[in-house]
Amino acid sequence: MSKKTANDTASDLSDATPGQRGPADHERREQILSVADDLFKAHGFRKTSVTDIAREIGVSSAYLYRFFNSKQAIGEAVCARALSSMDNAIRAVAERDQPATQRLRDMLQTLLEEALRLFLRERRMHDIIVVSIENQWSVTEEHNRVVYETIEKIVADGRDSGEFERKTPLDEVCTAIRVTAAAYAHPVLLSRLGDPEEMETKLTAVTNLILRSLAP
Fold first, then answer.
1. How far apart are CA 209 and CA 71, in angstroms?
2. Where is the segment annotated Disordered (predicted)?
3. The whole model's pTM is what?
4. Which of 53, 72, 104, 165 places its Cα 20 to 30 Å from the Cα of 201?
């Protein structure tokens, strides 16, 4: 599997966010996203309008539509930037020069840490991620693909090194791990798992069970 850099990831996520207009690297686009991000965190995605964003920047709503065709398009772009930090973090773990067993453990831990940061500590970001999941925005589908492919790389490496069993179909193993890990990276489910320390204890137990099931 080929490596992806942070720039590659940013490009992938940009491609996955519909409703974009104008040059991708325009400084005004970045200003719009930065202001929208702040407003979404302060007031929530649902309560923030395109007019609110335009007013904060000091331009007309019509001007914003030169770059995004709707509030959803702005929301998807903000969401993509937030999720890309999680994607980059778990990809970095997958590329480490360590045994696959350790990388899988660290990747699931990193997924939880990033989810806690985005979904619980930055509560308004929780709001926009929930909206994106409920409405099946393409950015969350892209994020799910990245998580799956990261798991797939680690498991495949573990099979090649003899750390993991090879009898079970690879896609079945990766899907099972992805579904199991979903509770620790979903904003709504995460909020029901208890305090962060308890979550880490539960994740350790789940990870130990996963690794035992992968043993040759």
1. 43
2. 1-27
3. 0.79
4. 165
**Do the beta carbons of residue 164 and residue 216 sit within 8 Å?**
yes
Backbone angles phi, psi at 20, to 5 degrees: -85, 145
Q: Is there a contact between 157 and 93 (Cβ–Cβ < 8 Å)?
A: no
Alpha helix ranges (H) inside 65-195: 71-94, 100-115, 123-134, 138-161, 170-181, 187-190
Span 44-58, pLDDT tens digits:
888 999 999 999 999
Q: What's the alpha-carbon Rg for the chain, to the nearest Å?
A: 19
DSSP letters of 66-79?
TTBSSHHHHHHHHH
Task: Tokens 């079970």: give the residue.
Answer: 168
The type of residue at 128 is I
Distance CA 51, CA 71 (A): 10
- The pLDDT tens digits of the residues spanning 31-84 come to 999 999 899 888 888 899 999 999 999 999 999 999 999 999 999 999 888 888
Do the Cβ atoms of 159 and 166 come closer than 8 Å? yes
Tokens of 63: 């001007």
Residue type, 182: A
Q: Is the dihedral of CA 80, 86, 88, 91 positive or negative?
A: negative
Alpha-carbon span 110 to 1, nearest angstrom:
21
Token pair, residue 138, equals 């393409």
The CATH class given to the 6-17+71-214 domain equals mainly alpha
User: What residues does each domain of the chain span?
Assistant: 6-17+71-214
